[in-house]
Amino acid sequence: MVLSRWPRLAYSAVLYGLAPLIGWRIWREQVPTYSRLQRLGMRLEPLPPAPRIWLHCASVGEVRAARPLIEGLLARFPHHSLLLTTMTATGAQQVLALIAEQSATDQLRLAHRFLPLDFPGAAKRFLARVQPELAILFETELWPNLLHACHRQAVPVAVVNGRLSPRAFARYQRLRPLMQSALASVTWLAAKSSEDAERFQALGCAADATTVEGSLKFEQALPERALAESERLLQAWGERPVWVAGSTRDGEEALLLTAHRQLLKRFPDALLVLVPRHPQRFDEVAALCEREGWESSRRSQQQPVTPATQIYLGDTLGELTALYGAGSVAYVGGSLVPLGGHNVLEPAALGKPVLCGPSLENFSDVAEPLLVAKALTVVDSPEALASALAEYIACPQRARQAGEAGQAVIEAHRGALSRTLDGLGRYL
Fold this sequence. Notes:
By secondary structure, this protein is an alpha/beta fold. The chain has 2 domains: 29-215 and 415-425, Rossmann fold; 224-412, Rossmann fold, CATH 3.40.50. 47% of the residues lie in helices and 15% in strands. The chain has 19 helices and 14 strands. It has helices spanning 2-17, 19-29, 60-76, 89-100, 104-107, 120-130, 144-152, 166-173, 176-183, 194-202, 224-237, 253-266, 282-291, 320-325, 345-349, 364-372, 382-394, 396-412, 416-425; strands at 52-56, 81-86, 110-114, 134-138, 157-162, 188-191, 210-212, 242-248, 271-276, 296-298, 311-313, 329-332, 354-356, 376-378. The strands form 2 sheets. The protein has a 7-stranded parallel sheet with strand order 3-2-1-4-5-6-7, with helices on both faces. α15 (345-349) links the parallel β12 (329-332) and β13. The chain is globular. The model has no long low-confidence stretch (mean pLDDT 94).
């Protein structure tokens, strides 16, 4: 038992050594309306009323994916409140937007705070103040000291939609003693696939604590506000061809602009809606468009889309669904560059044909059924992307068939939400 403590103690020592760098980054990224002391497990009040469920999501993508779970928890456990935590400022903004869309009664049961850094003292203070009946960690958020504090304070821990990409698994394998110690504190791990379950078990998660429940990403709801905005944009833009490139990453935008330039040769009035993944890159992408001589408009500045506009920069937060809905074809970024891709289900749920690059490691499980159904097409170059876009624009019927196929795949894979809520109910 003494030996099992050493990996966590060594990990904590490394964290303390990196504390100045971590502190600088937090100071730079923190939201002004939140106390930075929340990163140390302090200044958390006021908290939603007890009894509390605590749900942690890392950032924007996880918050979006967790939305059906959040709303399901509110409905299934009406006597509990829900504390939502994130690591990033953009994740915090996404949570606040989600809370604002709930009923007035449910808003009183919801609150957001920043997760403390994984220092032993900060983890203890956070748990002592929040006193949750249940801790829920979304996907891969395995913080050793926080998990240890949950164990010491007898708080059951559920990891839901548990996933480990091959890349993440390889990283964690190098830290197996630490991960084995952390996973020993997990009460229930609801993996999204059998492959993910096997990887967690290989890292030390107990087999009797692991079940396969399916992916919650197939349960994504379509907010009415987003759908209404999509319809407004469709009417404003008229009949021109529109394709949306969402969650694009560094080095990828230049490739997409090359594809768009080729597309314009065949469809001169085509519009590209370009939505970078990270807000800190909005100005950089805008500068790239200006440098290359594109006629562009920025959504954040409420600049209109005119017949001459070639690029519409979606440089706002929380509006990707609305923008996907206003396009004829969707491209999902992080995939023409070797970064593992992003959520291809988001535009598929809207009935859009979906394109992406070959780097899909992070979403291979949800991409596979879409590929089989021909709702998703993989392209490996700007030229191939332009060609695929042109085919869909030239043949609306084919685009409609691909979109309907994607929606059928999503409907066929539903069920993970109810199974996950049933499992969580055992601990409440």
